Amino acid sequence: MLARYIVRVPTLSRNLATHAPTSAVAATLHLKSGQSFYGKSFGAPRSIFGETVFSTSITSYTESMTDPSYRGQILVFTSPLIGNYGVPSNKAPFDSQDVGVYLESQGIQAAAIIVGDVAEKFSHYKAVESLSEWCKRNNVPGITGVDTRAITTLLRDQGTTLGRIAIGEDTALPAPDASEYWDPSKENLVDQISTKEPYVLNPTGSIKIAVLDFGAKANILRSLVRRDAQVTVLPWNYDFNAVRDQYDGLFLTNGPGDPAHCMEAALKLRTTLEEWDKPIFGICMGHQIIGMAAGLDAYRMTFGNRGHNQPVLALASAGSIKAGRVYVTSQNHQYALKLQEPFPQGWEPFFINCNDSSVEGIKSTSESGKKVWGVQFHPESAGGPLDTIEMFTDFVSECKAHKAEFGTVKAAAEVPLEVPVKRAAVAATA
């Protein structure tokens, strides 16, 4: 009797979940390579073009969808059920613990999403709406009821593919001609998503870190302010060299698209690397910009790495990272740095991907006298494993140590950077 009661408890719990039915409107995914997949629509009832990619993450769909690196992309989730815990409110304070949003940006960044089975019931104590309602409110379309395994297999075999989502009456139209597909990689997506004006977070922090924003995930900024850093967020192409001596360190964030569009930033960073001796850390796009500034080339991968389970091997030790250890990481990138021999003088490989041998990190050598690191993965995760989260502690500790030894110098000829301070919570959920 007791056993039967225990078995029935989960069923009762599911019955208490919030019901959020999806529409029965037809939807089609057309791929430029010729294949089409038919399902039903949820979210916004509009048709769009984009770049079709897949992610192997099984949790944190809200964080993935708000990651600016997914801008312009039709995101296919390989996990069969998405939406079961709904969507939380996205309001958070601007203080020493948070940066204005709960997720990774103020709105959904992906152009559209594709799931095998979108949950019509969701249950979580922080949930305020369903995945379908959230997508509709952000004008983002979705398709469910398609074979995401088949789509993923195609993308693995032929690589990331341009796509078209047709909703409702548009499903009766023929598939677009090859020339009609929109390629987001041809545009400077970083310029679209980066902050337009500088702003400051956590103004009472004990060290000052400048952040070049290529499309920053909020958890990168959150990871810095929680370690007692005052963070000044700058546009991606800001002339940091004009104000660099006001700061104790420089951070370069992740971002969407082709790093070749950001050569302007790489050339400015090359001057910084040559003339500045304070710590520098870059993640994802920021890592690629550091590599390009050092003299490495970036290339487009076949289908990229997207998910929360990518193993990387550390080739060198630095701070909390120990050479020879494998770390499980969160990743979202289509481009990578080329591994070349010889490596540029003063630089060495830091991490290598255990699955495809792509470069996952570079660092300055001890002989160079510099403290510069770049990693292709996301130590801050959100979502994903926290194997490498202490890299933020390492970076902030190096900035504090340099400040303790040399201080924060403000050159007399420099005009202090006047920027607004973020103090209040964001006004709207997203």
UniProtKB/TrEMBL annotation:
Biochemical pathway: Amino-acid biosynthesis; L-arginine biosynthesis; carbamoyl phosphate from bicarbonate: step 1/1
Domain Carbamoyl-phosphate synthase small subunit N-terminal: 25-166
Alphabetical list of CDD domains matching this protein: GATase1_CPSase
Entry's Gene Ontology molecular function annotations: ATP binding; carbamoyl-phosphate synthase (glutamine-hydrolyzing) activity
Gene3D superfamilies: 3.40.50.880, Carbamoyl-phosphate synthase small subunit, N-terminal domain
Catalyzed reactions: hydrogencarbonate + L-glutamine + 2 ATP + H2O = carbamoyl phosphate + L-glutamate + 2 ADP + phosphate + 2 H(+); L-glutamine + H2O = L-glutamate + NH4(+)
Any one GO biological process: 'de novo' pyrimidine nucleobase biosynthetic process
Cellular component aspect of the GO annotation: cytoplasm
Enzyme Commission identifier(s): 6.3.5.5
Source organism superkingdom: Eukaryota
UniProt keywords, alphabetically: Amino-acid biosynthesis, Arginine biosynthesis, ATP-binding, Glutamine amidotransferase, Ligase, Nucleotide-binding
Subunit structure: Heterodimer composed of 2 chains; the small (or glutamine) chain promotes the hydrolysis of glutamine to ammonia, which is used by the large (or ammonia) chain to synthesize carbamoyl phosphate.
Similarity comment: Belongs to the CarA family.
Record's protein name: Carbamoyl phosphate synthase arginine-specific small chain
